[in-house]
Amino acid sequence: MSLLHDAATGWLLATASLRARLAATLLTVALLAVGVALIIALLLVSRQLEAKSERDNAGIDLVVGAKGSPLQLILSSVYHVDIPTGNIPQADATRVAALPMVRRAVPLALGDSYRRFRIVGTDTGFDALYGLRVAAGTRAQRPMEAMLGAEVARTTGMAPGARFAGNHGLSDSAAGHTEESFIVTGVFAPTGSVADRLIVTPLDSVWHLHPSKVPPAGREPHAHGDANHDDADQDAAQRKITALLIQYASPLAAARLPREINAGSALQAASPAAEMTRLFGFLGIGIDTLRALAALIVVLASLGVFSALSAAMAERRGDLQLLRVLGAPRGVVCVSVLAQGAVIGLAGVILGLLSGHLAVEALGAGLARPQGIGLGGWTWAADEAWVVLVALAMALGASLMPAWRAYRTNLSAGLAEL
Amino acid sequence: MPLLAASRIGARHDAQDWVFPPLDLVVEPGQNTLILGPSGSGKTTLLNLLAGLALPAQGEVRFRDQSLAALDESARDRLRGRHMGFVLQRLHLIASLNVVDNILLAQRLAGSAPDPARARALLARLGLGVHAERMPAQLSQGEAQRVALARALVHRPSLILADEPTSALDDANCAAVISLLLEQAAAEGATLVAATHDARIKAHFSQVLSLPGRA
After folding, report:
1. CB-based contact B111 A330, cutoff 8 Å
2. Does residue A376 belong to the interface with chain B, where contact is any CB pair within 8 Å?
3. Digit-coded pLDDT (tens) for A280-325
4. Which positions ≥6 away from A39 have C-beta within 8 Å?
């Protein structure tokens, strides 16, 4: 009799045994699936957040802004998710930009929004930083002209030629600049970065709307009377911006430039890499706790596999003895138990994989996409292969002991027990 | 060539204590044999030795002139699966397999391809045609025993070993079951060796080996 024949017989016995204890089998599969799904979902979310963070970072080495929380400065100026720390004189920013350690410096003036999409006053250096390309219309050049990120265009339905008035601050409920409206001149091609969710306009637009200075951004609602809106002729020395995004000219700048700026002026310099490492460090505690919980569930599921198979073994002791008497070699009896562990493990892992991906897709569609996080379930993280292998190995490992006991089914009692 | 030949075989409880004293037994093809003895006389132990489920403390069992002791455990498993059928006293069927799959199991363990048509034909012959898809728990004890008989026959073994096949039955059922066993064994060209304390069936066998009770 071939090994294949033995394996087929073992498989028949295994599936019959699993069917006979369907409720216990499904429960064990479900427990394993929950553990695997949790780990997969955590993996996908953390990997995608890290990748998104890298895309949004766009190679920015340093952000210079007003004194305050460095993390807040990074979140508001690079990731556009927090309110800015304040404003800085444009003259100070220009001085920093001119330093030989700086390869590229891109100014940002923040504070207004349209339908929750932030309006960013900047120059064309911003396009180079994020690799922005005009997909429709032409690049905004003059004050009150605006470029839409791909996501903004898609959500608002606006196209070149459309007009809109921005709101003070970053929420829909804030008062609007109804007296002045932007005209859309173009739409950027999608980049997958935060730039897709921004409205980009020349710096002059912000200074036009906030003439004497850009008010302390984010401290909404801010007020400025008509007297302040009589535009033009601003004293350049009084102009303010929110932040300056910097790329170093050489790696040496990383050691000197932040220290010089932080020590010698009213400005603050913060490194996106360092701040995000700090942030992910905080988040990591929570993620690690969830991962530990998920791992615990997988371990519990494996114990469930062990317990279910041991109980089945105890129930089936007579069956195993009968099989041996009827001529089943030890291997067939052993395979019939191992195959049960493999079926439970495989079903749990496949169900867990599907559930984990579906959960992230649902999270992306229902919660994260409106927030601009852009989570998706139909992507694979390299570590998933390990999760699959470890979960399968644990389920199989849990069936080893019962399988060994089945293998050792003693024939010395022979027919006496049957 | 005898189907089964046991020469001077004995089994021990321990070094001093024999389960039964050394004995000889020759079973020719078609020579249905009854091993008769009271409880504790070693009937089942003798069946174990004849089936190769255990090896004798002394002497030798040969099946179709092949010494069972000369085979390793796996080869004895294969020989049992191919050439022997079993009808057992209590546990007759695998609880998680339906009636047909229980019967086909014997074919699988004999290394032959499952033949559901033959299994169903045997079931029909034993009056169980409508029970083919049922689970063992849905059968009466008598029905389960007949399914076990079908399983013992399906792979066309040359030897059927039955342990206490009638001990729990009344006289009418006892006669019916032993007649059925012998008829079906004859129909399939198999030889029946049964072990029992039930002397009512003695007359049905052409050879009887009596084991004395323990003193």
Report:
1. no
2. no
3. 777 777 777 877 887 888 888 888 888 888 887 777 788 888 888 9
4. A291, A294, A295, A298, A352, A356, A387
